[in-house]
């Protein structure tokens, strides 16, 4: 779909035009060096492969605050006489920014797009008003909604969780928010709906009935799925794993934990996973590991593209500039056949010290260029290098004979023991880890 740059009554980024592709040799910081949206890689354009999205919360709501200091960034769209006027200005800024950047998608939490009201009905009216404006902006620019979600962690009522809260009245409030956010997502043609359980866990095991909380969480998700389908949502429901922060123990700790949860409660037919790179780091995993666990289970949905700081113990949500991470992540995505309804959402924010409006563009440009490079390198590794053949050869013994019989479930344990006696002590076979690592580096160079 062709897209156009949006500017409303006021231009919030007047010093920045549409970001062009100028190639590797360009010294223009406001130009793509590697992301050429229409370049064809493996039968699809870069834009079709990567499906980039801008997130509403970090980019237009977060203003540099961290656990130790107040906001440092000043946004012109926040200068307004009331919350709804500010919300309209913020939306104009968001569509101006995203359309100048040239991304096809955006993502939002309900309270990022629309201010909460004094009660449930006022909050819903505010959101409906902003959804109508967002629909107009989508038509004007050709942009689409990758996913919507409800913020069930910021408000003080959710201090003990949302769907897992021990107070049913809080669970009801969470249900009202999710219903309204699902209505908004469907109205805007959203391709996915995400659940991020920011406080769905516990701080103290002694005061927590974990069985009840997890059963209530599954019941809540089931109700949300049923409602979404009843109003015509045909997209994918997504769970985003996160191991800690703010709770000591999250019920959605990592990909395998979530996969087990979904299968246990029979939700894996409608739900997949939204993997965030920084959350993988906090769980003690690599980004590629979390993606691989999802693809092994057939449950990879979408990606929040960012990175953490290995010297910090919290979710720093930095822009993804690590090329190795991008390459190994895209190898997993491509081997799985690419995104279906998901994409790469920049759940990232510029640093506290980055206070110029151009810095927001620079962060996204760097992330998009990094994943464009990662895509090209990953495609070459999978198609042109011996990588896949080497990997397959490690498992040659399961392709025929007794190894194949084992894989097919045709042997019992006694037969396995008999074969061990027949074979004798196996000859050690090298895993060739260094060879694989060197090959990846060779293609990155």
Automatic annotation (TrEMBL):
PROSITE patterns found in the cross-reference section: XYLOSE_ISOMERASE (PS51415)
Positions bound to Mg(2+) 2: 276, 279, 315, 317
Catalyses which reaction(s): alpha-D-xylose = alpha-D-xylulofuranose
Coiled-coil parts of chain: none
Positions of the catalytic residues: 109, 112
Cofactor: Mg(2+)
Entry annotated with the keyword Flavoprotein: no
InterPro entries, per the entry: Xyl_isomerase-like_sf, Xylose_isom_bac, Xylose_isomerase
Binding-site list for Mg(2+) 1: 240, 276, 304, 347
Highest taxon of the lineage: Bacteria
Principal localisation: cytoplasm
EC number: 5.3.1.5
Compartment(s) of residence: Cytoplasm
Keyword terms of this UniProt record: Carbohydrate metabolism, Cytoplasm, Isomerase, Magnesium, Metal-binding, Xylose metabolism
Enzyme class: isomerase
SUPFAM superfamilies noted in UniProt: Xylose isomerase-like
Molecular functions per Gene Ontology: xylose isomerase activity
Cofactor info, note text: Binds 2 magnesium ions per subunit.
NCBIfam families: PRK05474.1, xylose_isom_A
Subunit structure of this chain's protein: Homotetramer.
The family this protein is said to belong to: Belongs to the xylose isomerase family.
Protein's recorded name: Xylose isomerase
């Amino acid at each position: 779909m062709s897209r156009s740059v949006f500017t409303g009554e006021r231009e919030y980024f007047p010093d920045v035009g549409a970001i062009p592709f100028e190639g590797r040799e360009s010294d223009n910081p406001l130009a793509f060096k590697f992301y050429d949206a229409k370049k064809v890689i493996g039968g699809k354009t870069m834009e079709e492969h990567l499906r980039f999205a801008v997130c509403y919360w970090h980019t237009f709501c977060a203003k540099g605050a961290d656990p130790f200091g107040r906001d440092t960034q000043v946004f012109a769209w926040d200068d307004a006489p009331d919350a709804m006027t500010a919300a309209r200005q913020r939306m104009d800024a968001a569509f101006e920014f995203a359309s100048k950047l040239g991304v096809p998608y955006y993502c939002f939490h309900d309270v990022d797009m629309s201010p909460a009201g004094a009660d449930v009905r006022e909050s819903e009216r505010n959101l409906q008003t902003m959804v109508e404006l967002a629909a107009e902006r989508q038509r004007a620019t050709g942009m689409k909604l990758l996913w919507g979600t409800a913020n069930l962690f910021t408000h003080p009522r959710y201090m003990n969780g949302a769907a897992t809260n021990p107070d049913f009245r809080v669970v009801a409030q969470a249900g009202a928010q999710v219903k309204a956010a699902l209505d908004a997502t469907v109205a805007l043609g959203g391709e996915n709906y995400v659940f991020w359980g920011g406080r769905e866990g516990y701080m103290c095991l002694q005061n927590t009935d974990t069985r009840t909380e997890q059963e209530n969480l599954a019941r809540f998700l089931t109700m949300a799925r049923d409602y979404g389908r009843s109003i015509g949502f045909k997209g994918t429901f997504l769970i985003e794993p996160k191991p800690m922060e703010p709770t000591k123990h999250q019920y959605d700790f990592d990909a395998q934990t979530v996969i087990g949860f979904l299968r246990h409660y029979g939700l894996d037919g409608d739900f997949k996973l939204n993997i965030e790179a920084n959350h993988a780091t906090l769980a003690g995993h690599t980004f590629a590991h979390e993606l691989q666990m999802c693809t092994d289970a057939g449950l990879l949905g979408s990606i929040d593209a960012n990175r953490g700081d290995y010297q910090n113990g919290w979710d720093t949500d930095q822009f993804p500039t690590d090329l190795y991470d991008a390459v190994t992540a895209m190898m997993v995505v491509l081997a799985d056949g690419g995104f279906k309804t998901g994409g790469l959402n920049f759940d990232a924010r510029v640093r506290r010290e980055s206070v110029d409006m151009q810095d927001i563009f620079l962060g996204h440009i760097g992330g998009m260029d990094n994943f464009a490079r990662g895509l090209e390198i990953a495609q070459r590794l999978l198609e042109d290098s011996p990588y896949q053949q080497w990997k397959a050869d490690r498992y040659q013994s399961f392709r025929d004979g007794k190894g194949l019989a084992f894989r097919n479930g045709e042997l019992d344990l006694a037969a396995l023991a008999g074969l061990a006696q027949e074979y004798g002590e196996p000859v050690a076979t090298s895993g060739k880890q260094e060879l694989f690592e060197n090959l990846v580096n060779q293609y990155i160079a």
